[in-house]
Amino acid sequence: MRPSLPEVHTAGVAPTHSDPGLARTATTLPEVDALVAGCFACPRLVAWRERVARDKRASFAAQTYWGRGVPGFGDARARTVVVGLAPSAHGGNRTGRMFTGDPSGDVLVAALHRVGYANQPTSVSADDGLVLTGARLVAPVRCAPPDNKPTPDERRTCAPYLARELELLAPTLRHAVALGAYGWQALLATLAEQGWHVPRPRPRFAHAATLDLTHDDGRTLRVHGCFHVSARNTYTGLLTPAMLDDVLAATLA
Predict the structure, then answer these.
(1) I need a labelling partner for 100 at 20 to 30 A (CA). Which of 86, 137, 200, 242 fits?
(2) How far apart are CA 180 and CA 98, in angstroms?
(3) Distance of alpha carbon 209 from alpha carbon 65, whole angstroms
(4) Which SUPFAM superfamilies match (predicted)?
(5) pTM for this structure?
(6) pLDDT per position as a tens digit, 52-61
(7) Cα distance between residue 89 and residue 144, in whole Å
(8) How confident is the prediction for the chain on average, in pLDDT?
């Protein structure tokens, strides 16, 4: 569910909060979502997301951009999380929903539909009727970064949101798909801090790599590596629909 907050932040409006650590107090995923949408912790990212929301792409000039932190999206009882990098400037930052309104979202949601996680093959807006069953889309960084490159400090600042989502999904979570090396490393770092037995040195990212982890409490989780669904990867054929389908289908076993 999309948080019931103003669609775009404008200069002069007081921040909701600047402490991602509040995520640790959230008892539900909607509470985490609201904290993400109200976060103003990283000045560089806040300035960029708001600039993009004001200086819109010409093809979206008539639309009101979300211009805030972008919450995760999907099933609160997911067996699988898909971990990206960060929202795109004119995708999630515009629509307010992860992997929505850009080429990456088009590719990912079509694949989620083919393997049975999504009720439809398209993801164009926050009110388009898309429903995910058994899967949730998340990211280590929740604001669109300049040049799609968050800094290490920004990732660390944002980490409590991903950590709390994983904790709240723990009763049902069995698989995690990391899109690209950034998602892979960020996910493993978070899991290691949460009591998962992540090997050291940490395994390197590779497409179709799998890593079976156990937790201190006996839970198990299989991590899958997948090339990111970026336009560069899909347009050049580095990641094909069949390759993506194979990774996602493996989470159904």
Answers:
(1) 242
(2) 16
(3) 37
(4) Uracil-DNA glycosylase-like (SSF52141)
(5) 0.93
(6) 999 999 999 9
(7) 5
(8) 94
Q: What is the three-class DSSP state of 111?
A: helix
Positions of the chain with pLDDT under 50 = 1-14
**Residue where the block lists tokens 């992540």:** 198
Closest to 167 (Cα-Cα) out of 72, 92, 86: 72
| 201: preceding bond cis by omega (within 30 degrees) | yes
Q: What is the pLDDT of residue 7?
A: 42
Phi, psi of 53 (to 5 degrees): -70, -25
- What is the C-alpha separation between 135 and 112, in angstroms, rounded? 9
How far is residue 74's CA from residue 118's CA, in Å, rounded to a whole number?
Answer: 9
- What residues contact residue 89 under an 8 Å CB cut-off, 6+ apart? 48, 49, 52, 144, 148
What is the amino acid identity at position 81?
Answer: V
Query: Cβ atoms within 10 A of the Cβ of 5, count?
Result: 16
Residue 94 lies in a domain: yes
**Tally of structural domains, the chain:** 1
Residue 239 domain flag: yes
Report the CATH number at residue 234. Answer: 3.40.470.10
Report helix, strand and coil shares of the chain as percent, to nearest 5: 40, 15, 50
Tokens of 235: 């347009």
Tell me the C-alpha distance between 79 and 149, whole Å: 29
pLDDT score at 6: 38
Cβ-proximal residues to 207 (8 Å cutoff; 6+ apart), any chain: 225, 226, 227, 239, 243, 247
Instruction: Kindly report the backbone phi and psi dihedral angles of residue 158, in degrees, each rounded to the nearest multiple of 5, phi listed first.
Output: -80, -15
Question: Residue 131's domain spans which residues?
Answer: 32-197+212-250
Alpha-carbon gap, residue 146 to 141, rounded angstroms: 12
